[in-house]
Design goal:
Layout (H helix, E strand, L loop, with lengths): L4 H29 L3 H28 L3 H32 L6 H22 L1 H9 L6 H55 L1 H7 L1 H13 L10 E6 L4 E7 L2 E6 L5 E5 L21
Helix pairs in contact: 1-2, 1-3, 1-4, 1-5, 1-6, 2-4, 2-5, 3-4, 3-5, 3-6, 3-8, 5-6, 6-7
Length: 286
């Protein structure tokens, strides 16, 4: 088991990345589709499909090519594709919203298509980690059960960390985009370290992947989260995506996908002639 320590570390970080990406994906979809139970059903269901496909493909691939260098190449590409998600998410999700806005089930279909395009390949590749790692770690069938148990235990422990880390720490402090990049670069560094252990030449070639992500972060991370012609300000809080828009003389505060208006401000009139005016009488109940 000691000789498999780096392999098990990779499985742990891969499990952390998988759930970290899934939880962060919900915040990526918020500005476009909201966070209703339909969106969560699409997200969880599709991710489970990708992971199932990854388990199946990973097991078959491992039997055909049981080499460490192949394993770490798969992990490296999965991590790299995770890092690309925040840079391509906005145009793809805008297209998904616009393409199905006229349908009654537009939110369901649009979010389904958005998740399908963005997450299918990286999550499938990450799903290959555990079966491939088991194939590499098992040298004696008499210890296969113990090794398989250790691999899945560490993967699950990583997933637990990946569940809470983005929600409680990363997204509130560094935002959704950088959360994706942090998970991506962490796993990518682990994968490249594994490649150097098996093939220095291959490891050197794969050093180009984090360089690409660094260039994208430097030149492509300054754009709006969702944006719009009337948007004055947008940001992420611990709980919501927040957008301030100007419509005529009114300034609106919208949350998440923006279907509901949280509050309205009119500079030249204390009344906005809507339900928000009822809050003006609140001080008189004190």
């Amino acid at each position: 088991m000691k000789s498999n320590a780096y392999l098990l570390l990779t499985v742990f970080v891969s499990g952390m990345t998988t759930l970290g990406v899934e939880l962060s994906a919900s915040r990526l979809l918020d500005p476009f589709f909201g966070n209703s139970i339909l969106i969560w059903a699409n997200l969880i269901g599709l991710v489970l499909i990708y992971l199932s496909l990854g388990y199946w493909l990973g097991g078959r691939w491992a039997d055909r090519d049981p080499r460490g260098v192949t394993f770490f190449q798969i992990i490296a590409w999965g991590a790299f594709l995770v890092g690309l998600i925040p840079f391509f998410a906005a145009p793809i999700l805008r297209w998904s919203v616009a393409g199905f806005a006229t349908f009654d089930a537009g939110i369901l279909i649009g979010s389904f298509l958005g998740v399908l395009i963005l997450f299918s390949l990286p999550m499938t590749l990450l799903g290959m980690a555990s079966p491939f790692a088991i194939r590499l770690a098992v040298t004696d069938v008499s210890g296969a059960g113990r090794i398989a148990g250790a691999v899945y235990a560490l993967s699950t422990l990583g997933s637990i960390l990946g569940t809470f880390l983005p929600v409680l720490v990363l997204i509130p402090n560094i935002g959704t985009r950088r959360t994706f990049l942090l998970f991506s670069v962490t796993l990518l560094c682990i994968a490249i370290g594994g490649l150097f252990q098996h093939s220095r030449r291959t490891g050197l070639l794969y050093l180009g992947l984090p360089v690409v992500l660094a260039i994208l972060l430097l030149f492509g991370s300054g754009g709006p989260i969702k944006g719009g012609k009337t948007t004055l300000y947008e940001t992420e809080s611990r709980y919501n995506y927040i957008q301030v828009e100007k419509e005529g003389e009114d300034i609106l505060l919208r949350l998440n996908e923006g279907q509901g208006i949280h509050s309205v401000y009119t500079p030249d009139d204390p009344l906005v002639y809507g339900i928000w005016d009822y809050f003006l009488v609140a001080p008189y109940f004190n």
